[in-house]
Amino acid sequence: MAKDGEKGEWKDFIWNPRTREFLGRTASSWGLILLFYLVFYIFLAGLFALTMYVMLQTLDDHKPTWQDRLSTPGMVIRPKADETFEIVYDIQNTETWDLYAQALHKFLAPYNNSVQVQKNDECVPDQYYKQEDSGDVKNNPKRSCQFNRTVLEDCSGIYDKHYGYQEGKPCIIIKLNRVIGMLPGRNGNAPYVTCGAKREDSDKIGELMYFPPNGTFNLMYYPYYGKKAQVNYSQPLVAVKFLNVTHNQDVNIECKINADNIPMGSERDKFAGRVSFKLRINTKN
After folding, report:
1. Most exposed among 101, 132, 142, 166, judged by the fewest C-beta atoms under 10 Å?
2. Do residues 170 and 279 make contact, with C-beta atoms less than 8 angstroms apart?
3. pLDDT tens, 8-28?
């Protein structure tokens, strides 16, 4: 009998036909609760939408309002076979170095002279290409300067489609990471790249050639205004050709950027402004 009583109580709690209550509440009570939560969540959604609207009014579609960046930009090299930054190949084994040549060919395709002439300007070298806005009137889209791969000469892939790899005189390409508004160099002195072997390999690296001459990033490619504002921007490049690096041995190399106003490294990233990689050229004895 006790079980029948408990069962009846549960049935009455779920639906009481005498008081017409569902789960202990009448229809009007349920209606008021639902109305309260509906108004409450509409208010929260409206408050969130208003907050987002006010925040979005402070943003610029073409330039970040705040930039939490390093004072020294990073550097990358091409070709890049994997995350280990190693260039290892055998001169007699075409398959081991052809992948590097193909990677460079693909990377440099957007720098073909015919492509650059169509989309970018021929700028005055050795001076910044500034394109300021006029108050609230945005000067967008902004123009960009031509960087023709012919500037890389022996490392352009035009005169040697193998980029020196088949001769044991490989080329690598270096570029700086893009930083909006950065003006590298000072007093007309352009930033430039230098490469050298780590201390233990200083006698293995041999002679180097830089393209453009002295490994400079010309000032006319700066400042960079952002991907949306400067859609056709072509990052300047520096090529380094290793003329007589020691074969059959690991050579650990570091390249760095040099400029009057770019500090070397930082507390946040000691590798900022430099890139290290291993080069090994094998030959069959």
Report:
1. 132
2. yes
3. 566 666 666 667 676 667 777
